[in-house]
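W.,

You were right to be curious about this one. When I first looked at the sequence I had no strong expectations either way, so I just let the prediction run and decided to look at it fresh. Below is the sequence, 207 residues in total, followed by the output.
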Amino acid sequence: MTAAPPGPPERDAKFGGVRHVLRPLHRGDEECLRAFFRSHTPETVYERYGYPVSEMSFDRAFQLVNIDPARDCALGIFESGPGGDVLDAVGRYCLDADGRNAELAFVVRESKRNLGMASFLLRTLIQTARARSLRSLWAQVSAGNGPMIAVFRRHGFAFSPLEPGGEVKLTLALAAARPAARAGGPPAAGRRRRPAAGPVDPPSAAR
């Protein structure tokens, strides 16, 4: 069986003029993830989970940073601080049971919003999913979360309401694999279910 392509490599990016690093989450990031969760306002927690969540246990954080990288993808955007790395945004996708489609979710620290982090994470997750030949990515978002819906729609996601005034589903069909090139010519053209994608639950609806 062919191994899945590796996840995205670590790379630098600037947001608000400040250097950050995007990289996969891994063992050792548990306390960064717990601190990130504690930074959320009650509104963010509710938008993300649909119910109150007061704390993230170490065991839950351990599960969220120790994913199977051949199946799922979990990324963080980190900033260096005087006390060590600070996690400012998390994005991930989790494969559906069919193994060909995946649910997206991401959260950005309130003080770091409107700097482009959500779009940067989304583009990286889309690139990773395409490299792994997934068929589609999808997310469930609160109908009142206009900024998040706008991010998805700018990246080509189709919009469909799930319930009046409730949640909406956004889906991106990924490009099909190109057929093999012909000899002597160019290739042919070619809540409330939540997965572990956020800080506390498994991939889940993006918020």
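Here's what jumped out at me. The beta strands are 11-15, 18-24, 73-81, 84-95, 101-108, 136-142, 158-161, 167-173. And, maybe more interesting for your project: The chain has a mean pLDDT of 83.

Coffee later to discuss?

I.
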